[in-house]
Specification:
alpha/beta, globular, Rossmann fold, 9 helices, about 15% strand
Length: about 220
């Protein structure tokens, strides 16, 4: 029995939930279209290039949470998951999760996308353990700020190490499935790194390191 770690966006689902949530806010008229849509696309391009300023992005992406009460946000999130997330869930990803579950492995998703967006998505795959950037929540409202370390690049390693220190799990025999070169710090840490429908930079790194390369979309 081992620890099986999964990235979420473009790994277990066939798109980026962070970007899609931003577009959902634009399409529903919840945020101002021109500025927000342009900024959302720019941040996503920065992410793909590996140049994202994660703190600047979080200030941008979490700001709408502070502008509405929690119950309204949860209603919007339910609609978002139903209309935009469920159609991009992957049968092969669910089968992979179930394979590890049947083997008795501990399942963990670790994602750069914040917990507000990702928690219900991860539950759809029946996974209980989630490491993600945590939006600050005070007196029943989101503040637009975040708690602790952003779960991005080396931050994923830091948060995983904190989680391991408070659990009985270890990285002995561990797996990590990811599509993104942003996850190389964590891929280099586990015993069994697997590139899943990898971006160009991760594909090159995986080929050089002789890591398994798989697709959950074909």
């Amino acid at each position: 029995m081992s620890l099986a770690i999964f990235d979420l966006d473009n790994t277990l689902i066939a798109d980026d939930s962070d970007f899609l949530w931003g577009q959902f806010l634009v399409d529903r008229g919840i945020v101002e279209r021109d500025h927000y849509e342009q900024a959302n696309k720019k941040f996503y391009e920065d992410y793909k290039q590996g140049t994202l300023n994660i703190v600047e992005f979080l200030h941008f992406s979490l700001a709408p949470l502070a502008q509405h009460d929690a119950e309204q946000l949860y209603r919007w999130r339910d609609e978002f998951v139903e209309t935009l997330i469920k159609p991009i869930m992957l049968d092969a990803a669910q089968a992979l999760v179930e394979k590890h579950r049947a083997a008795g492995d501990t399942l963990l998703v670790i994602t750069a996308t914040n917990r507000f967006v990702t928690e219900p998505i991860v539950k759809l795959y029946g996974i209980d353990n989630l490491l993600a950037t945590t939006p600050e929540f005070v007196d029943g409202r989101y503040t637009g700020k975040f708690n602790g370390t952003p779960c991005f690049q080396h931050g994923k390693v830091e948060l995983l190490e904190e989680w391991l220190a408070n659990s009985t799990e270890t990285l002995v025999g561990s797996y990590f499935y990811s599509d993104s070169h942003n996850d190389l710090p964590l891929l280099n840490l586990v015993d069994q790194p697997i590139a899943v429908d990898p971006d160009e930079k991760l594909l090159k790194a995986a080929q050089q390191a002789n890591w398994p390369i798989i697709s959950l979309r074909k």
